[in-house]
Amino acid sequence: MPTEFKLYNSMTRAVEPLQPLAPPRVSLYVCGPTIYNYGHIGNFRTYVAVDLLRRALKHFGYQVDHVMQFTDVDDKTIRGSREKNLPLKEFTGIYRKAFLDDAKTLNIELPPEEKMPNATEHIPSMIALIQKLIDKKSAYVSDDGSVYFRIASFPKYGCLCHLDLSSLISGARVNQDEYEKEGVGDFVLWKKWVEPDGDVGWDSPWGKGRPGWHIECSALSMEHLGPQIDIHGGGTDLRFPHHENEIAQSESATGLTFVRDWFHVEHLLVDGQKMSKSLGNMYTVRDVLAKGYTGRELRYALLSGANYAKNLNFTWQGMDDAKTALSRIDEWRKRVRELIPAQAAPVSGAMDESPGVTTYLRALDEALAHDLNINDALGHFFSLIRETHKAIDAGRLTPLQAQHLEFAWTKLDSILGLGEATVTIPAEVQALLDQRAAARKAKDFAKSDELRKAIEALGWKVKDTAKGQELLPG
Ligand SMILES: [Zn+2]
Questions:
Q1: 231 Cα: distance to centroid of ligand 1 (angstroms)
Q2: Residue 116 Cα, ligand 1 centroid: separation in angstroms?
Q3: Sequential DSSP letters for 4-32
Q4: Is residue 25 a contact partner of residue 65, using CB atoms and an 8 Å limit?
Q5: What is the 93 CA–ligand 1 centroid distance (Å)?
Q6: How far apart are CA 444 and CA 112, in angstroms?
């Protein structure tokens, strides 16, 4: 464990050493998706950055206690389920699964299932927390039947976003889950049931209703991780009002500092512009795959473009660059592995024979410990690649050194999570392959030839082997 693993804390706006409450445990709460739609690549930039953090913490010997909730009840999910005319659970279930599939495509390590709660399965803990806030006079039942948090009861309000509340009208209320800074006011904790909510509602001491979005995270983080969290992560757009409100709710209830380190992942721009529906640049992971890129390439582009605390500009050129960088790594690994004897014993311990590797491993630790400087780590790695090629060309690389290099890659990849290159077969090609297998089984060889041509027209080759059809890129 390094003495100083430093992260940018967006509360203090400084890079600070991480000081977990009970090392080696690090509690990590991350605001999960609101499951009303497919996540776009900006959302996934956040989850890839959190994944980098989680892997780096593990690399340094920390035990990460990671929780991420799914918001399956709020204004947006209710609106979406009504528009699609589906029960809320069924509607959100579609997008929960889509999120998990996309996370898999990007090789994101998620918390275990029991640490990924759906908000609707924990309503009692939200009700208990709201009751506690009412008892402490931090919240009140308003004349509209909903429960609101009283901002005036929490003088620290605005500490995360450095808000000036001098012009705030005491008692002004906001009933929506999302609002702008200009709309700051007492925010809703429990929303009284209204006609458009349909069959979405739970009984509570304040009548039938549902939790507000913000209280979900305070209740779920407390239930799963306790009153204080080492690191709280999320996209930068959640700073206000969501995280500001989480602080107010949690600290009013416990009297303790809620979060020690705020890990905010900055915006993903597309071609230098903010993503928006009107510009048509709000790509999903699926949109990127449909253009012929792999999840591995997208992951690399999201990881390597910029530090997580800076804006990242996504471009298609950047995706092509990611593809090129990955093929350089893959070619290098192939060359290195060819030098490793099949029966080689696994390497461990000192690498005195391979000074380049020793230096590289030290540089990797230093780069990661300094606010996850992955670009620095990659820069060092590409130097190592160049040195290796020179050594192989000169016939100077020994099998043991090759093993050490493979070990260096394994270390880096435990952080990068890029794995092996795989060929992704487009659904259209797979469908033709399946039809062709059926045609061959039925001994319809004319049809089988026709399908082969259709597959070739899509840029693939099909070979018939003893084990069946084998598909190769054309
Ligand atoms: Zn949250």
A1: 13
A2: 13
A3: --EEEETTTTEEEE---SBTTEEEEEE--
A4: yes
A5: 19
A6: 48
- Indicate whether 5 pLDDT > 60: yes
Between CA 330 and CA 328 the distance in angstroms is: 5
- Locate 366 and state its tokens: 């230093």
Whole-structure pTM value: 0.88
Q: How far is the CA of 274 from the centre of ligand 1 (A)?
A: 22
Query: How many other C-beta atoms lie within 10 A of the C-beta of residue 216?
Result: 32
Region 342-367 average pLDDT? 88
CA of 30 to the centre of ligand 1 (A): 7
Query: What length is written for the chain?
Result: 474
Per-residue model confidence (pLDDT) at position 165:
78
Predicted confidence band of residue 468 (pLDDT cuts 50, 70, 90): confident
Distance between CA 301 and CA 267 in Å, rounded? 14
Question: How far apart (Å, rounded) are the C-alpha atoms in residues 312 and 300?
Answer: 13
Q: Within 13 Å, how many C-alpha atoms sit on residue 213's CB side?
A: 26
Backbone angles phi, psi at 102, to 5 degrees: -65, -40
